Structure formats: structure tokens, C-alpha cells
Amino acid sequence: MTATLHDAVQKVLDRQGTSDLALEAVAGLILPEFDAQKAVVYTLDKGTGMLKLRCHVGIERAAVDAIRFLCMGKGLTGKAATEREPIQGWQHADSRCAGEKDVLPEGSLFVPMLAEDALRGVLGIAKDFHREYAPDEVASLSSIARLIAAYLK
Questions:
Q1: CA pair distance 113, 120, nearest whole angstrom
Q2: Nearest-CA neighbor of 147 among 30, 1, 36, 10?
Q3: Stretch 101-115: mean pLDDT, rounded?
């Protein structure tokens, strides 16, 4: 990840906070950097303990209902949240829940959004085919996830 991407994401968050539109703008900045077509941002709903979809880019509206709310530990997104570790789709394709299988392909990467050791949500990107993300790419997306988490209350 370039420092430029980090700075651009920080500028969006400084100006717009963490509104759904701001998160969508952040996702739009991230996708070209990782040559990905899809992005999701989930935040932890403290009331229900579920992950709530706050932003999606590149996912057809008809498919969104299947992934709007995800349980902790369920699917790749929930697993990244529970384990607080990045999860790559190709490594855990059998762990995808029904909604994820239809919407988020094997070429996906999900990273927890952590701030002050507290889970704030999950950031995910995906390509439409098998893709293995290099360690530096995982570290870069994790860095962006931590930046977003710092702005989430």
C-alpha cells in the first residue's frame, strides 16, 4: 500500500466521518489499489452482536439481502471478526455461509477492524476468481482497516 492511499483514506474520514457514503468513498479508493471488484464494510452492532453491512461496492443490489447481517463466527466475515485475524477466501472456501457463497468469491480477503483492541467491524475485498493475497497486501488492507476502526465509535 502506498502512503498516498493511506493519506487519501484519512482525508475522506477526516472530512466525512464514518457515514455510509464516506465508507463507500473509502471502498472506492481501496479497490483499484488491490485490483479488486468488490468491497464490503461491516460494523459490529453492539445491541445484537451481529455484523451489519454498512457499505458495499460491486455487489448487485438483489444479492445484498443475503449478506446484510452476519453472525459472529459465521462465514468468512464472521470468522475474521471472531478470530481477529485476516481470512482469505481461497483458504477457507468451505467456511463461507450461504449468502457469502453467492456474493463473495474465493478471491476475497477479510480483515478485522480493530481499535484499542476492540472489534469495530470487518473490511473485505474480492475478485471474481481465485486469488491469493500476498503478505504485504494483507498488511496494507489491515492498516486501512485499523484506520477506519479508529474513526468508528
A1: 5
A2: 10
A3: 79
Distance in angstroms (rounded) separating the CA atoms of residues 19 and 28: 14
Looking at the DSSP bridge assignments, the partners of residue 38 are 126
Whether residue 45 has pLDDT greater than 70: yes
Q: How far apart are CA 15 and CA 60, in angstroms?
A: 28
Strand partners, 113: 121
Contact of 23 with 55, CB cutoff 8 Å? yes
Question: pTM, whole model, 2 decimals?
Answer: 0.89
CA distance 131 to 122: 19
> Quick one: 55 exposed, middle or buried, by C-beta within 10 A (0-12, 13-18, 19+)?
buried
Length of the chain counted residue by residue? 153
**Beta strands at 38-45 and 118-127: parallel, antiparallel or unpaired:** antiparallel
pLDDT value at residue 97: 52
**d(Cα 32, Cα 114) in Å, to the nearest integer?**
23
| 57 and 38 Cβ atoms separated by less than 8 Å | yes
